[in-house]
Design goal:
single chain; five-stranded parallel beta sheet; about 40% helix
């Protein structure tokens, strides 16, 4: 049986590397992207089982059409147009996650975690979403 695929999207290359290593060590296949517009290509080609998406991207990371300016509208867009209708999207943030809980739920995210959460909590959440 092949490992579950996780698409990890974050603008911070250090976070991408560290989180990728944790996820790979846990037995997942990991695809990474530093921008949502790059991730959409990976999404369509690789068909991941889960998307792990950072909430905050700098303003200069928005594409020319402005589609990816807000991560909550991005989640909605991924659900409608990006081919992620059946793929759980787990949002992550370095900020206080409680301020985003309601918006994440309304956008259709499967969950929301702080980046500082421990590895056991992260893996438990991921495994719950994948099962």
């Amino acid at each position: 049986m092949s490992p579950k695929k996780i698409l990890l999207v974050d603008d911070n290359p250090v976070f991408l590397k560290g989180m990728s290593m944790k996820l790979q060590k846990a037995g997942f296949e990991v695809l990474t992207a530093q921008h949502v517009s790059v991730a959409t290509g990976d999404l369509r080609e690789a068909k991941p089982d889960l998307i792990l998406l950072d909430i905050n991207f700098p303003p200069d990371m928005a594409d020319a059409a402005g589609v990816f300016r807000d991560v909550f509208s991005t989640v909605e867009w991924l659900r409608r147009m990006g081919g992620a209708s059946g793929i759980p999207v787990l949002l992550i943030t370095g900020a206080d996650s409680t301020q985003y809980t309601e918006r994440a739920r309304q956008a259709g995210a499967a969950g929301l975690l702080q980046k500082s959460c421990g590895t056991p909590e992260l893996m438990r959440t991921i495994n719950q979403l994948l099962n």
